[in-house]
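Trying the structure run again after the queue cleared.
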Amino acid sequence: MNALSIRFLRRPVTAVASAALAAGVLFGGGLAAAPSALADEPAAEQETARFEVDFMKNMIDHHALAVAMAQPYVEKAAHEKLADLCRTIADSQSAQIEQMQGWLQDWYGVGHEPRLSPADKQSVRRLEDLSGERYEVRFMRSMIRHHSGAGTDSKRCLDRAEHPALLDLCDTIRRSNSKQIDTMQGWLQQWYGRQSGYSGY
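Done. Tokens:
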């Protein structure tokens, strides 16, 4: 599969999301405050609600790039361990994209489809043109940098988000990305005697 043709499931607008739209949750003066962040309600504070919406939109796009980078490697594998990690990244982050799309709709009446910027598409094309050692080294270094950015954003989410489900997801992203970074750094050194240039987040 060409990484740039990747598709994600489009979620239907739920009854809760429709009600949120009718109430003007995200129009005119911005996000309407709600008494508390219950299962299907916006965050209580307007600033927090804005953060949650922006965070989920950005993380959906961020995950889309990781999936676009990881999926083609399953077919280009030189090391099966790295191919397995790519499957894990593609599967878990695709599922998290759908999860965040659902929360955007359920809590805020907002729809968002994954987007790759022109720079993102160019990065994926550069990877697709490589093979063997050059591909693996470039891929792991690129994914380490990518995971580092998501880890930093997830730490910010833990400080500012309100919905427990989103907080749990941010903690999962932070922990899993940190573990995968450590794994890829080890492989870079073990297989190719290379460093990633990453110093932690």
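The chain has six helices and two strands. Worth checking whether this holds up in the mutant runs.
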